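Lecture 7, part 2: worked example. A protein chain together with benzoic acid.
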Amino acid sequence: MHRSLILGLLLLAAPASAEQYRLGLITPPPHQWTITAESIAAQIKDATDGRVEILVMPSGQLGNEARILQQLQTGAIDFALLTSAEFANRSDDYGVFYAPYLAKDTQDAARLLRGEVAGELLDGMGDFGLHGLAWGMAGMRQVVTTGEVHEAADLDGLRIRTVPLAPEMAFWSLLGAAPTPMPLPALYDAFANGQVDAMQIDHEGTWNSGYYKNAGTILDSRHMIFPMAAVASSRKWQSIGADDRASINAIFKAQIAAMVDLYGEIDAINLARLRETDVPVIEVGRDWFGTAVDDWYTEWRAKTPLLARLEAEAAQ
Ligand code: BEZ
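Predicted complex, written out as structure tokens:
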């Protein structure tokens, strides 16, 4: 076949104006967020006939979440799956999902993440220079300590790793522990080296990242939801054609919803695996934490009226 004809056929087969976009996130490749991000990217490529190709950059390759947010705002990064840390640190409204024992279980958490308050917070992402696509979550929060823990008093003075965000840190301060903010990628070494005595985490991470190997106790506490925001850079969002935007929006929403629905199972599977290890797993509930839970609500109700509205949704 003539070379120019071959070239012509190749050009016809290529998508009209394929553009490569980048999605940043801090979770490692085996984490469900990363798996879902890969699946979203593949489906979007398909649905847009290759016009929108999203490269998933896990494990904080594009920097920590503060850095990812900055890059989204300038349009240097296009999409991200983020914890709520950067939002909650800028606006108390975004701290309400961290209310301890707000959700009974992952299903209840899913309901709240699809509720009215969640919808308003997603719409409000414009204030951060973002377009909100969907609320997701990781598993319910649990506690892993290097030493033995039997009662809440044993947490007194412990340096407990939290995500760098005010509402989580407030809870641990109220318990008399020393909250030590630390992003996920730094956690394994810090726990193994004794830089922290405990961590707030989920069963998925405890198993997948092997935190249990250096653990003395695992508290199956399920004390908080851990929300995730799927977002696009507002700047980049505007530059994508309306039809492709609609496809991207729909795919993110559907896949993130399916992921949220999977978390009950993910937590249960990883808890069962952890129970097979030598590390004692202790079930604890709201009462175990004493007055810290009520004190947290008193403090945070004064910070944002959205908390009382979310509590009302939770009570329905
Ligand atoms: C964490 O920092 O604990 C975390 C971040 C993203 C997903 C799950 C956990």
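The chain is about 45% helix and 20% strand. The chain has a mean pLDDT of 94. Keep this in mind for problem set question 3.
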